[in-house]
Amino acid sequence: MEDYPRTIAEFEAWFSQEAACRDYLVRMRWPNGFRCPSCGHSNASMVRETLFQCARCRRQTSVTAGTIFQDIRKPLTMWFRAMWYVTSQKNGASALGVQRVLGLGSYQTAWVWLHKLRRAMVRPDRDRLSGWIELDETYFGGLEEGRIGRGRVTKALIVIAVQAEGPVIGRIRMRVIPDASADSLQGFVKDCIAPGSTIHTDGWVGYSGLQNAGYEHEVTRRGKDPKLAAKLLPRVHRVISLLKRWLLGTHQGGISNQHLDYYLDEFTFRFNRRKSGSRGKLFYRLVEQSLMTAPEPYQAIVRRGKLSSPQAQSDVGPQAQSIGVG
Ligand SMILES: [Zn+2]
After folding, report:
1. Eight-class DSSP state of 127
2. 33 vs 27: CA distance, rounded Å
3. Which own/partner contact pairs does 105-110 have at CB distance under 8 Å and 24+ positions apart?
4. 59 C-alpha to ligand 1 centroid (Å)
5. What is the whole-number distance in angstroms between the Cα of residue 60 and the centre of ligand 1?
């Protein structure tokens, strides 16, 4: 049963009340009706807005416990609106946009909400890519853009895998890696690409162990000309350029290396569902995955950007109100 609003009018008629949002979560979490996690009993009474009490063992269970909605202070209706806003727009939303649309008092709240939602955008159990895969890395961040060789400066190094479906781009995976060593690259490959797949790369030595790791390896050596690289691995370079346009457009480039992985998750979430006929389906997936994602405390999300990076001036974290590139 995949039941979701198709239009904003449907969304507003459906989710204007707290009870409707709660019922939607309850139905998604317990598709066959409530079950007590302690004793399996199905009869429960509601003791508070999202809290059920088992009629047999009296255990209390919240529909939001253990999900990203655990301990939220604002009403579910606002969270639902945030999820609709993020998924209904082709390019997603910036924290500033969410703050404005929801009328949130602080930029910080909107920023943290978006980061909580991004945690839910990647399913831990998702399939690996398979078949013919193009693989390459790119740098992002800092004052300069583009590829500057394989040494890491303050830029983040991103590895990207793109599944080919004939001439067309299929699903993608991407991740920030510490360096372009064989260990870093192969760790990503093993997590994201099924053995037996053919991986097409340039001649970088970090890829030389792929065959021993159980993959077919197609190598095209690139010359000095970066334009040539885009021709040799056209799909992955198309994705790199769309990714950079999104990071620099929707988010104005103001992203620290510590948070970048979560933005990549959001890009991937949207990209892999770009052919989905309905934006409502993305909303449905986000709600569904939010219920499967453990909560990360507010302070942990905020701290990630502040403590670990002395060079994160470009981070549009909760402290920064202004947004600038680089
Ligand atoms: Zn019980």
Report:
1. P
2. 7
3. 107/318, 107/321, 108/302, 108/318, 108/319, 109/74
4. 5
5. 8
Q: How far is the CA of 53 from the centre of ligand 1 (A)?
A: 8
Q: In what order do the strands lie in the sheet with 60-62?
A: 44-48, 51-54, 60-62
255's CB contacts (< 8 A; 6+ apart) are 141, 247, 263, 314, 315, 316
* Residue 103 half-sphere exposure toward CB, CA atoms < 13 A: 3
Alpha-carbon distances, residue 299 vs 69, 208, 265 (angstroms): 15, 41, 21
- The model's pTM is 0.85
Cβ pair 136, 237 in contact under 8 A? yes
CA 169 to CA 282: how far, in whole Å?
A: 19
pLDDT (tens digit per residue) in 107-117: 999 999 999 99
Q: For residue range 165-223, list pLDDT tens digits in order.
A: 988 999 999 999 999 999 999 999 999 999 999 999 999 999 999 999 999 999 988 77
C-alpha of residue 245 to centroid of ligand 1, in Å: 51
